Amino acid sequence: MTELLNSISVPSHPSSSTKPTSSTPTMTSIPKQTRQWIVSNPPKTNVHLDGDNATWTLQTVDIPELQAGQVLVKAKYLSNDPAQRGWIQDGVDAERLYVPPVRKGDVMRSIGIGEVILSKDENLKEGQIVSYMPDWQEYKVAEAKACMPIQEDEEAGIRATHYIGAMGGPGVTAWWGLMDVAKTTKEDTVVVSGAAGCTGSMVVQLAKHVIGCKRVIGIAGGEKKCKYVESLGADVCVDYKAADFEEQLIKATEGYAEVYFDNVGGPILDLMLKRIKRYGRVAVCGSISTYNDPESTNLKNWFEVIANRIELKGLIVLDAFMQGKGPEITGNLRNAVKEKKIQIEVQEETIVPTKFEDIPKTWMMLFEGGNQGKLVTELQF
Known about the structure:
By secondary structure, the protein is α/β, with parallel strands linked by helices. 23% of the residues lie in helices and 24% in strands. Mean pLDDT is 90; it is low at 1-28.
């Protein structure tokens, strides 16, 4: 399962511009211990950063000795994803979760980018930049086969961090959700919530510039984010923080929408059930509005699903990889970037320089609306 999770950020071609350095670290520079954040109090509702009920605890442990086929990787960037909240939910039923839950005493799980600083594998050398599962720890002994060399492309503007963002899980999620789950066509009007986030912003661009949908409507919070979404190609972006949000959304979806890509759940999903055309499709990707309060979901408009025969289908990006489509989709995304159909620019990432002891604080920005595009933790040592 770890290898499968790691494959979300795997590029479709061998590494080219990211090359190993010629120098090998001296043994005196190899760390013997690493700090790590462990889950100490799995939350039922809100996450707590401090106090007796703090969700995570910082600890220092010895690094195990490297074995054949393993590498020691130093974390450089951590991916921050709403799904992580579900992984640590107190009392979650492991049989109903799509990945093993992160239990009390476990190191917090995370996808990321790191640098190989010691290798006992012939295919990975010191200095190689890789995508892997660093979890929330400084150094990790990892199986070399689960660490994938990343392919940067200076000419196309593709950086390492894009492989945990637009070129990684969020980008593949957007493609998979639109193309395979919702089966979106150019004749469709598409609405996407969380449109300023990494997945949502990719949905906007794919719908408008790759599929060529007749109308693309974003939903985001605040004037700045809405303008950003419209700059990506949305015909209009509706501000869910506005006092007249419902009236604006009704106006924007006049004639209704064939496809809704849902990243937030809750009241916005409930409202959108009244704005989906008969026989419309909903790709249910996320529910960030309810992650900290799972019992708050209250869909008043559920009968719309029955009356208008609306199809709702949940999606997990791991399905794309389990079906062997991950590399193909990543290749399609690279081509769309090179053809200038997808913008990969600085504003599509919120990269936050973070001290190791502040990792949870940066992660919390996911739930505070503090990021535009992909939220990335850049570790400062």
